[in-house]
Design brief:
This is DUF2818 domain-containing protein. By secondary structure, this protein is mostly helical. It has one domain (3-96). It is built from four helices and no strands.
Length: 100
Amino acid sequence: MDQSVAVWLVLALAVFAANLPYFNERLLLVGPRQAPKAAWWRLLELVLMAVLTFAIGSLLEARIGRRHSQGWEFYAAAACLFITLGFPGFVWRYLRRGRG
């Protein structure tokens, strides 16, 4: 797999994963359906999806070549980017459609 394809794949996965908690009413994406899912469930799902996305990105990086060690700054910036990518789902869930 080419490096640029891997980068675009991780970015597309991040956009999908960051918005998925807002569009799905199931607990942890596979559990029972909760009509008004609590905001803390969505936050937990967002954190789990971020960890999953970072892990897939790390695996793709290791598959392409040598994996570079990253400091806390990288993970803080990546988490902020992940939250920003989830903004359309947040707007759709809480600002456009309302709470109920």
